[in-house]
Amino acid sequence: MLHWLLILLRYAVLMALITVIIVVLCYFAINWSTRSAIYSDINKVPHRHVGLVLGTNKYLQRGGINQFYQSRIDTAARLYHAGKVDYLIVSGDNRSNNYNEPKQMTKDLVKAGVPASRIQPDYAGLRTLDSVLRMDKIFGHRNYLIISQRFHNQRALFLADAKGQQPIAFNAPDPTTQGMKKVISREYLARIKAILDLIVNTQARHYGEPINFPPD
Predict the structure, then answer these.
(1) Is 12 exposed, middle or buried (0-12, 13-18, 19+ CB in 10 A)?
(2) Is the entire prediction scored with pTM above 0.85?
(3) 145-149/168-172 β-pairing
(4) Are the C-beta atoms of 118 and 88 separated by less than 8 Å?
């Protein structure tokens, strides 16, 4: 009996080790595959007609402003004012009347000096995959500028490239007041999920009628 328990234990340890190796390889493979399409210097990022701002909650559960959110808003406004993008699509979750990421992003970008006429909310960006798919299927854009933090940009670019799109990305600065270790640990799992979504060809939860933005 003990002999079989030892065999099972060794098998479990081996499988756990293989799983960890696969997760780590997936993480760094995505980093490597997207490296040439990511920019951090605003003077070097090429101009794109449309930028995609990926959403997140403005507020932390414990209270206060989510610095990941604020950094994305500040960066998107900076890119617009620098003439690096002409229009912005703000894509996020709109799960209830009291939680509306695109509406909040639009409001804060207008406060930052971006004209409302240059902003288009995407209310069905429930996940990064949804936001990327809808850029092509709903808005008709395949060559655009993604705006988020580096770790998020890498995953979004990976998904977009796998779907035949050709976006580039600009990195919003990582917060210094919020722990990155927890975020990166979640990102390992998010990247496994992204790969599985591609394998099974997961689609956006909502599509609908095409939206002509920017208007002709």
Answers:
(1) exposed
(2) yes
(3) parallel
(4) yes
- Write out the residue range of the structural domain in which residue 61 sits: 34-199
Residue 193: give its domain's CATH number. 3.40.50.620
Query: Computed from CA positions of residues 186, 192, 194, 197, in that sequence, does the dihedral angle turn out positive or negative?
Result: negative
Q: Quick: pLDDT tens for 38-87.
A: 999 999 999 999 999 999 999 988 888 999 999 999 999 999 999 999 99
CA–CA dist 68, 30 (Å, integer): 21
In this structure, is residue 56 part of a structural domain? yes
Cβ-proximal residues to 216 (8 Å cutoff; 6+ apart), any chain: none
Question: What is the β-pairing status of strands 145-149 and 119-122?
Answer: unpaired
Q: HSE of 204 in the Cβ direction (CA atoms, 13 Å)?
A: 25
Cis? peptide before 214, omega within 30° of 0: yes
Whether residue 207 lies inside any domain: the answer is: no
> Quick one: which of 166, 141, 14, 26 has its CA closest to 89?
141
* 204 inside domain: no
Is 19 inside any structural domain?
no
pLDDT, tens digit (0-9, with 9 covering 90-100), for 89-113: 999 998 777 899 999 999 999 999 9
The rounded radius of gyration (Å) of the Cα atoms in the chain is 19
Question: What are the counts of helices (DSSP H) followed by strands (DSSP E) for the chain?
Answer: 6, 6
How many domains does the structure of the chain reveal?
1
Residue 183 contacts by C-beta under 8 Å, 6 or more apart in sequence?
68, 151
